[in-house]
């Protein structure tokens, strides 16, 4: 289970992969459509998709000449359950966590240092 969680969190650590997952929330997409908004090669997008696929966050299916990507929301269940374990102590402030990760530790929600 720990290895699975590590793989999911590693996949979620990259902003490009998080953006891809957000796009796939809307609908299944062809790989070329997934790649369109990003300023990187199709090969680079394919590597991101491969990591998401290995993490179980998406599945890829070949339909004729086109490869389609589909979000697999159940793959986030274990990560969600793990994070909810911290809810017993205090409300998890994801905005504060994001600021911490980005190195803006001194900022607060109301703008005070």
From TrEMBL:
<feature type="domain" description="HTH arsR-type">
    <location>
        <begin position="1"/>
        <end position="93"/>
    </location>
</feature>
<dbReference type="InterPro" id="IPR036388">
    <property type="entry name" value="WH-like_DNA-bd_sf"/>
</dbReference>
<protein>
    <submittedName>
        <fullName>ArsR family transcriptional regulator</fullName>
    </submittedName>
</protein>
<dbReference type="Pfam" id="PF12840">
    <property type="entry name" value="HTH_20"/>
</dbReference>
<dbReference type="InterPro" id="IPR001845">
    <property type="entry name" value="HTH_ArsR_DNA-bd_dom"/>
</dbReference>
<dbReference type="InterPro" id="IPR011991">
    <property type="entry name" value="ArsR-like_HTH"/>
</dbReference>
<dbReference type="InterPro" id="IPR036390">
    <property type="entry name" value="WH_DNA-bd_sf"/>
</dbReference>
<dbReference type="GO" id="GO:0003700">
    <property type="term" value="F:DNA-binding transcription factor activity"/>
</dbReference>
């Amino acid at each position: 289970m720990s290895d699975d969680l590590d793989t999911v969190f590693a996949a979620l650590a990259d902003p490009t992969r998080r953006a891809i997952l957000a796009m796939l929330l809307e609908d299944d997409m062809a790989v070329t459509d997934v790649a369109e908004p990003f300023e990187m090669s199709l090969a680079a997008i394919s590597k991101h998709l491969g990591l998401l696929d290995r993490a179980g966050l998406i599945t890829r299916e070949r339909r004729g000449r086109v490869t389609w990507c589909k979000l697999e929301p159940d793959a986030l269940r274990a990560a969600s359950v793990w994070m909810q374990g911290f809810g017993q102590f205090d409300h998890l402030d994801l905005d504060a966590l994001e600021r911490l990760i980005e190195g803006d530790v001194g900022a607060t929600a109301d703008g005070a240092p």
